[in-house]
Design goal:
Layout: H1 32-43, H2 47-54, H3 66-72, H4 82-95, H5 99-108, H6 110-121, H7 127-144, H8 155-178, H9 185-188, H10 203-212
């Protein structure tokens, strides 16, 4: 079973003197969670990466390690931390066209994603590893296509909620609806492969469908 760690106390907070302590860690030795954490460790202090991050004009201060950026995005802070929420909003806005920003946003919500994967993995084939693969892929899509213009608050919780919905809920709901015998021909086109009702879909669902069909 994977275990994630989130630093919340000021004394344990990441700092220049504490470069050896990662904000997100896992006890597992393999699987998607381990791969993501290991990749982050390689990126976290790379000079070229830090130069790019420190060129972002919305950061309130420069960083010397990517974990410091996670803290600026509200990692380990109160859920109503407005300053962190605002920095994360800017990161997600940038993530639409910047993979590094998307990677930062993904790691910001990793503990929550792993918690969802642990819960969902208990009831799905393939266990936590399969659940983690599903929710990470979903979270990446949500981050890259996040409707930041109309959703400016509670960014982290919105990403996690949307990722869980697209990974584990949406398809199941569509299958249940498809199994209902509807005689009215006007309704059958809602679930046709060739067309979907824009009026019956949320904006986020429309983006998901577009991504599934290769529209970026």
């Amino acid at each position: 079973m994977e275990t994630t760690h989130t630093t919340t106390s000021p004394a344990a907070s990441f700092s220049q003197e504490n470069h050896g302590t990662a904000l997100v860690w896992s006890t597992t030795s393999s699987g998607p969670g381990r791969q993501i954490i290991d990749e982050w460790a390689r990126l976290a202090h790379r000079p070229a990466v830090l130069r790019r991050v420190n060129s972002w004009d919305f950061l309130p201060q420069p960083v010397e390690h990517l974990d410091q950026l996670l803290e600026l995005c509200g990692f380990g802070r109160a859920v109503d931390d407005a300053a962190g929420d605002n920095v994360l909003w800017h990161v997600v806005r940038l993530a639409e066209h910047d993979e590094l920003a998307a990677r930062v946003a993904l790691h910001r919500v990793m503990p929550a994603l792993m918690a969802v994967a642990r819960r969902r993995g208990k009831i799905m084939k393939g266990g936590m590893s399969a659940a983690m693969s599903e929710i990470v892929a979903s979270a990446w899509m949500v981050i890259r296509q996040f409707p930041y213009e109309r959703r400016r608050h509670k960014i982290a919780s919105n990403i996690v909620r949307d990722a869980e919905y697209f990974a584990f809920v949406r398809e199941a709901r569509l299958v249940r609806v498809q199994e209902v015998n509807v005689e009215n021909d006007v309704l059958t086109w809602l679930f046709d492969d060739k067309s979907e009702s824009l009026t019956e879909m949320t904006f986020d669902e429309l983006l998901c469908t577009a991504a599934e069909r290769g529209v970026e």
